[in-house]
Amino acid sequence: VFSPFWPPVHTETVSSPRKNAAVDAERDRMNTTEWFRSVYEHVTLPTIYTFVFIIGLGANVWGLKSLLQKWKNLGHINVFLLNLGIANFLFLPTLPFLTAYYFMRNKWIFGDAFCKITRFCFNLNLYGSIGFLTCISVHRYLAIVHPLKVMGRMTVHNSVAISVVVWLLVSAQSLPDMLFPKNSTNRTEKCHHTTTTKYVENYLKYSVGWTLTGFVMPLLIFLGCYGHVTLVLCHKNTINKVVKQRSLKLMFILILLFSVCYIPYHIFKNLSLYSRAFFFKHGKYPTWDEGVFSAHQISRGLVCLNSVLNPLVYLHVMDISAQLQQLLQRFRQTFTRLNC
User: Fold this and answer.
1) What is the CATH number of the domain that holds 91?
2) SS3 of 155, please?
3) Residue 4 φ then ψ, to 5°
4) 123 part of a folded domain
5) pLDDT reading at 243 higher than 80
6) Residue 106 within any structural domain of the chain
């Protein structure tokens, strides 16, 4: 093990102050990183998980209940909405365990097998949500651009078959993640969300391929669909004004989901993995590692917000705004009676 102060101080002449300054700067950087890791991972991140669990569970239960009540009126898109809700419910029950893990300062007490299951459920939620949001986007695209030619051939069986294919693809992409170790040999109570430093180079290659197939390709499909839809809505005067407004609102919701939850997570996850692989190979981190590390930690909190933002898709597609107005009106009437 080489000390940062080797060779001894008495052999240094002119370069000694410069080296000492570099060591001090490196120590300050490590202290700042450790402080951020401590505060964010052990306070902020579990707080976000608690918020997502409470709000997300309530919002998704209400959304799926409304979906089942309006099942026959929605058409084939209800199958994709149902699967989007299932993807959320696969992840939400694991949040109390992750909250306990980070509150206990990264001490996992639930076993290695359940650690891998928890991370697997997160990946199913993430990439299942991306897949079914893409299906909803394509469905809306076909309904506006090809309402008779293509949509006339769509059946419930087709929607179910597409959903099965999405789940199979997402599972096939996520299963290799379970083969990587999630705890260190000397720290068996850890539960890494990627893998240990020893296997980080192989995991980086897997993660890049996973990102391309599970995120970039759906993102390109989404951009292509709504780019074409925007052109059609702008140039066709025969389309109903209400249809235009609803399509643009759905596009805004999906852009919000991709921009806040999905894009930052995938960018900074892969950059962080590359930084760890660089350290494993060269014995030092890149100069930009500190900023990427902080951004990656923040993106981990943002990505789980998709379980809270996904019900906005229910709200839009099922037009639950009318139900909200009725609930508010009943609440006002009840409050007025109580005051009287």
Assistant:
1) 1.20.1070.10
2) coil
3) -65, -15
4) yes
5) no
6) yes
How big is the chain, counted in residues? 340
The H or E element that residue 220 is part of is helix 217-235
Quickly tell me which residue has 């890049």 as its tokens.
208
- CB distance 97 to 177 below 8 Å: no
pTM over 0.90: no
* Mean pLDDT value across the chain: 81
Residue 321 has pLDDT above 50, yes or no: no
The two structure tokens encoding residue 331? 């609440």
Higher pLDDT, 64 or 185: 64
Domain encompassing residue 67 = 43-180+197-327
The Cα–Cα gap between 113 and 223 comes to: 38
Residues 245-294 pLDDT 10s? 777 788 888 888 899 999 999 999 999 999 999 888 888 888 888 888 88
Using DSSP's 3-state secondary structure scheme, residue 141 falls into helix
Asked, for residue 333, whether it belongs to a domain, the answer is no
> In whole angstroms, what is the distance from residue 206 CA to residue 173 CA?
9
Residue 106 DSSP symbol? S
> CB under 8 Å, gap of 24 or more: what pairs does 282-289 form?
none
CA 141 – CA 153 distance, rounded (Å): 15
Nearest to 299 by CA among 267, 332, 324: 267
How does 198-214 read in b/e, with b if 16+ C-beta sit within 10 Å?
ebbeebbebbeebbeeb
CA distance 133 to 225: 12
What tokens were used for 279? 């350290």
> Per-residue pLDDT tens for 142-159?
888 877 666 666 778 888
pLDDT in tens, 66-91: 888 777 665 678 889 899 999 999 99
Place of tokens 């992750």: 98
Number of domains into which the chain is organized? 1
**Residue for token pair 């206990």:** 104
Residue 32: both structure tokens together? 């700042």
- Residue 326 pLDDT class (50, 70, 90 cuts): low
Residue 28 forms part of a structural domain: no
DSSP state letter for 193:
S
Q: pLDDT at position 336, please?
A: 66
